[in-house]
């Protein structure tokens, strides 16, 4: 027999709620921008991923890493396609503006809360992350470029 109790509350779907880690710290927007300057959009993705992870949002943390890797690949492809006489700032300035805008848009409110509570990482830590991301890109990119040069694909 069906349960037709008219006074029973309706069934609701359960919703997963992101729970921040206890004592978590976040990277500031300025740290994300400095990390991007030092280490390509890969650093942007990694730093924002760490912020999402600290906030308990693991799905967005994975997305941030994937988007950072895709953006880094696109920038490297653009470097290969454009002429050599294009100044480096043509690549750097849009990346920095994009990193700042994306960080403010998606994490700005939460970062401001953590900043007010003095629970943010030093920008020097973001510089270190940026340098490590730059090193990771070089470790992957140098063998590829050497292989293409030896194969005669690039000069």
Automatic annotation (TrEMBL):
Segments traversing the membrane: 26-48, 64-82, 127-154
Entry superkingdom: Bacteria
Keywords per UniProt: Membrane, Transmembrane, Transmembrane helix
Name used for this protein in its record: DUF4190 domain-containing protein
Species per Swiss-Prot/TrEMBL record: Lysobacter arvi
